[in-house]
Amino acid sequence: MSSFAEFGNDLYTGKRSIDFVGRQKTWYAVSAVLLVLATIGLFGRGLNIGLEFRGGSEFRISSVTNFDNFEARAKTAVGTVNPGSNIVVTKTSNAVRVQTETFQSTLLTAKVNSALAREFKVSVNSISANTIGPSWGASVSRQAITALIWFLILVSLVLAAYFRTWKMSLAALIALAHDLVITIGIYALAGFEITPASVVGFLTILGYSLYDTVVVFDKVRENTREAEGNGRLSYSQAANQAVNQTLVRSINTSVVALLPVASILGIGFFLLGPGTLLDLSLALFVGIAVGTYSSIFIATPVLADLREREPAMQQLKKRAERYQASQARQESPALSGAQTATEAGQDGTDIQDRDPVSARTSTSVSGRTLHPYVQTGPRNQPKRPPKSKR
Amino acid sequence: MALNPRNRGPRRTLAALIVIVFGCYGLLAAVSTWGDAQRTPKLGLDLEGGTQLILQPKVVGNQRINQGQIVKAVDIIRARVNGSGVTEAEVSTQGGNDIVISLPGTPDAATVNSLEKSSQLRIRPVLQAGSAAPTPFPTSTGTPTGQPTATPTATGKATARSTAKASTAPAKSGYPPALAAATTPAPTVTAPATAPAKATPGATANPTTAPAGTLKNPSDLAWITPAVEAAYTALDCAKPKDIEAIVDDAVKPMVTCSDDGLTKYILGPAEVFGSDITNATFGQVTGTNGVNTGKWQVLLSLNSTGGKGFCDQTSRIISLPAPRNRSAIVLDNKVITDPVPQAALCANNASITGNFTAASSKVLADQLKFGALPLSFTRLTSDQISPTLGGDQLTRGLIAGAIGLLLVVAYSLFQYRALGLVTVSSLIIAGSLTYAAVTLFGWSTGFRLTMAGVTGLIVSIGIVADSFILYFERVRDEVRDGRALGAAVETGWNRARRTILISDAVNFLAAVVLYALAASNVRGFAFTLMLTTIIDIIVVFMFTHPLLSILATTKFFGEGHKWSGLDPKRLGARKVTYAGRGRVTIAARRAATEGNQS
Fold it and tell me: CB 3.0-4.6 Å disulfide test: which of B83, B211, B235, B426 passes with B148?
């Protein structure tokens, strides 16, 4: 516990810094592998689209007398004939309705008919088979997609206006697409059925991913603005510092978001068995985890990569390099270990907002801390550098 | 404890929040005690089951039903069921032409009836009105005076479609022929039905055969041909069969009854159509003195075509003698109201004041807003259906949610010590507000929770808790920078507030766009998201921040007790140093020194 708070302190001060931005190639590679897996799932196995989207067949078993456990019975009955089909079972006052995907052959339909009749102990004649249209038809999908596109456009505009750069919108959208593809890929790989409920799950993930990215980006904006002002850090370094400083928040938030979903997942897995709840909670679990991952490991490095190409950011980088080099030079003679300086020499990202003065305090004979200025005598006046050096 | 004057602002905000929470629950208690609300949130189709209706299109004559009409009808019915609310009803087709509607819960009869109605609205001028019973002989009012100068030439074979073309010009309605085809479901000869047995010999002729010659306008009495007159005479508003047989052909005069069955009318050709309605709302009628009359009305916004038609009609008929100064609003072949316009109404809007209640005016407004069905339907069956998800799914899901919440509480206490209690109490406030809001919206707009909605709410715990975590982390950052706690809370809040606002704004934008544009389940999701986002903002601004400001003045938190979660020592702060640019720093220096010493 206390180590976690210290971890937070160290991240904040920059004493400990994880190089999220600098090692972007590693993260990109990890994501690329995940994305390839997801795409293989999507195109190889394909999505298992529910009958709410495609329509299907409905068997209506009337004059049923024994309704005990009707759902499981109907499922086993259909499962014996056509294993692995998506089935929705509901009951009305005197009938059981079994909705399945459309069967290609009439033979199969007849088989399902007789299987259901056997299971529910009714004659085949009291089962009526019918085709049903999709309740989530093409027009609903079209509306939803239009809404989604409008939303993405508006969000890009709002983020671009708020952050004053379209690159943040682009990076946020890339992270968003990354999360969605991976989550949908999980659905494809696991063979989960896509139902209206899972569409809502995807939208929840979309909202969460975007939310998390915006929170991280707000800190990035704060830090990079400061860096642009004082020129001590390059854009990438400032962005990396921002991610490090929000890391504790990101961890805490995702743990808090994941705990309830994880407990649903656990209950769904151990008590309920496969069903909407399990599918949804697994998708949400993966989605939230990936959403947190992408806002740290994908969105920010992508943003830094995009911004570093700007001439102004290149200049900032040079300024920061000069500043950091001068800090290192000033420090190295004064320090016995010269630890931080060598670190800084190897890896520029480790140098954070460090006060030049602080490193050189020493103690007087009486043990009092002496300010460095006192040690070095009167302050040197600024000198105008020769023209060639300007 | 003496009240600290510095806390006056935060205390007020907290008091306001308490008022809001109690207001919500008070309202909930009131509507559940005296109204028809229930105390728990309404559940969706997958959790509660509901009613399933199967509608079959009415086929008149040898009319053919094409798939396009069915698809359009499904879309319109879907829009109607989901209306202004978010019931997440399912609408699909069965066996080609039948439409299956699954509504959660037990909808009332009016709702069910409204779904299958075609809701064809027309505004026509009144030509003649009388008491409802069949009149044995022509009444003297106006009938003979305006007898057509040219005798009807079109007889027998003149089908409605051909007359539609012929009479479009005199009817001077700017109404596209395509619509005529679509909105006249039964253009065949229907005279035998309209003028039953004991009617005049002319019954075999088409009663709506247009008179030849020139007709000045839809109010022209020349529209009343002998056939129309005969149909009028024969019509008995007490007989449902008679009313059912009425055919509403927009370009021809029409014989029909009033909604209450007391009056019957001959009406001129339609001048305003349902398709001209751009929006329909409902509200209470205010009298001339601004006093609420307690009556309900439906307000229509018309497009330019409809507006012109209504303007032409009202400006023409104000000078005409009664009953021709009336403008009849015809809905599904019945006159629902026939107001006398006092002046020409040319503002592209119209209002309908009939015998409305709040509920029926809302239903009508919804029907008109989403357009008329291309077909009429009859109900084949109406069944109770069981939930598609077993009952144990919800209970176990809720148990899981509760366990998850306990874990969240444990985690935040572990992470933030006493500050964790602030998180927990904020989550409790957010949870109780959500419960009240979901239940209240269930009552007012029919909002229902589906399984996906429940999991969405559980995920929203994360988003709501994030606002607190973000805030606390920023406050801790300020403490690390060496600020005193009181100042750290304020500056930390200023920085956290912006982040909370922008991230919630993005979520809210998502919710609004999806709610406005999407349908069905997506809409339910959007609604949930909107709700949780607003509640998040309310709780953070009105509870967490004021509470923390107050707590910062206490000794326990203000002096950074070991268990307060804001212990400056543990957070690595030592003392304040001014670092320029309006910032103080010490943490960085400390880290550097430590780095040197080690």
Answer: B211
> Is the per-residue pLDDT at B402 higher than 80?
yes
- Which residues of chain B neighbour A142 with C-beta distances below 8 Å? none
Mean pLDDT, residues B149-166 taken together: 38
The minimum CA-CA distance between A273 and chain B, rounded to whole Å, is: 10
The Cα B128–Cα B491 span in angstroms is: 77
Q: What is the pLDDT of residues A266-308, one digit of tens each?
A: 888 887 766 677 778 888 888 889 999 999 999 999 999 999 9
CA A114 to centroid of chain Cα atoms: 48
Radius of gyration of chain A (CA): 31
Residue of B nearest to A229 (CA): B581
Q: Looking at the DSSP assignment, which residues form a beta bridge with residue A48?
A: A193
Distance from the Cα of B75 to chain A's closest Cα (Å) equals 8
Q: Which residue of A has its CA nearest to B500?
A: A215
Residues of chain B found within 8 Å of residue A271, distances taken between Cβ atoms:
396
Answer whether the bond into residue B185 is a cis peptide, omega within 30°.
no
Domain residue extents for chain A: 2-48+137-313, 56-132
**Which of A190-204, B181-195, B407-421 is the most confident on average?**
B407-421
Q: Does domain A56-132 have CATH number 1.10.10.60?
A: no
Chain B partners within 8 Å of A131 (Cβ): 94-96
Among all residues of chain B, which has the CA nearest to that of A222?
B495
Identify the CATH class of A2-48+137-313: mainly alpha
In degrees to the nearest 10, what's the CA dihedral of B292, B125, B350, B169?
A: 180
- Most A CBs within 10 A among B419, B504, B507, B521, hence the mutation to make, goes to B521
Go through the domains of chain B in sequence order and give each one's CATH number. Answer: 5-41+390-597 (1.20.1640.10), 50-116+379-385 (3.30.70.3400), 121-367 (no CATH)
* Chain A residues closer than 8 Å to B572 by CB: 6, 9-10, 12-13
SS3 label, residue B417: coil
